[in-house]
Amino acid sequence: MTRNRWFISFFVLWNLVAPGHCVHAAVSQVLHLGNGTEPKDLDPQTVTGVPETKIIQSLFEGLVDKDPKSLEPRPGVAESWKVSKDGKVYTFKLRRNAKWSNGDPVTAADFIFSWKRLLDPKTASEYAYQGYYFRGGKNFNTGKTDGSQLGIKSTDPYTLEVTLENPTPYFLSLLYHHSLYPVHQQTVEKYQMRWTRPEHIVSNGAFLLKKWQMNKVIIVERNPTYWDAVNVKLDSVHFHAIEKAETEEKLFQVKKLHATATVPTEKIASWTQNASGVLKRHPYLGTYYYWINVNRPPLNKPQVRKALALAIDREKLVKFVVKGGQAPAESFTPPGTGGFQPQAKLPRDLSRLNEAQALLAQAGFPKGKGFPTIEILYNTSEGHKKIAEAIQQMWSEHLGVKASLYNQEWKVFLDTQHSKNYMISRAGWIADYNDPHTFLELLTTGNGNNHSSWSNLNYDGVLEQVQKEISSKKRLELFQKAEDILLEELPVIPLYIYTRLYLLSPQVQGWYDNVEDIHPLKWVWIQ
Q1: Total domain count for the chain?
Q2: DSSP state of 482
Q3: 205, CA 20 to 30 Å: which among 63, 233, 241, 486?
């Protein structure tokens, strides 16, 4: 007999013997979420996508957690911390009751192992640069020194001391990022590439990995060894791999899902008029853009890249194609990120078309003559396809440039992008923390997530200055310099600033709108 049926039987019996008591059927605390796609993996140090991150955040916990409303850093595995006067040394006191799911204590050594693993060149993590904040992190990752030179050490099993290269005002928020979560050393070393499978994985978060049915569902269950298990209300969470927004929406309507990953474009208007309030729409720190592989002629010419960017009507794109209240992207960094308001902007008026045509002619392709067909890659999605088709039409109409479209499933798409085996590729970047640096460092030379092959030493120098600058005013000025360079060179084509759009059942409680779209599931329950 299942747990819920046992409770119901008990309450029915109690009602029969004690008729004065009111009966309430227990609400199943099983949450069903649309995850958008099948995750590539669940390894905190190697994944990069949002579909993976949402699951990993339920399975693992870093030094800090985030407040579900304000997103302010709050104690996680670390119960407290102190920061030196110069802002470079953090001393964390770890909870003695923090456990791995196999009962082992979570210690400072686990974080040291995991952070060295992140930075180890053999791991080939695209997020290795998140460890560059540690003193000696970049030198270790680039093979100049070994891990013994890293600014991380423990004075006892429950004290972790971290020394940074520079004062970093958002460092505590950065620690919530999955790449800096601890992993269980013995499990990783024993099972290697298969350590994240349900039969092997050892984790330390609020939930345990119970089942992974490829291309269907991942099920996590409440972790009884979690230090704060008493406050976790959900029994389990089902992450459903559903790539078609239309399918997600239908499952939501028949109450098979409590939340979707998105909303079909053609259904946004009707859900907006729906009085139930299940449509959620709020600002989101993210940019939808196209990578340009600058190693593929003629895309190696800045004039060509700028011509392609200027020929796109972003206002029409968001109004008639995307339709979710998104804002046309005039810069790469979303306005308002960490208080930054970019001044360098892609023009909106029609003069941009004359400039685009002139630039293409300067590059040797007047009215598109002699220009090879461009290939646009996107991960399988009807929404991405419609955007690509609209841009395909704009380039043909305004520049005489032809484009062909092709799509790939999520895992294959990520590998193709990482190997740079494409010409132009759809992409989206969501803030890892609320600061412009999370967007602009993406384009630095050698960054693991820089899929454009673009390198600019002046740009790199500006971002290095940012890391050393304490003054908020001067930091914003430097970010502006970086945006100026970026919009002149355009290794990326910004298209629109995200608006988070999805369907959420009113039964779901403890889930709050925020610009980072972070909803720690340990605080969520079903009413």
Answers
A1: 2
A2: H
A3: 241
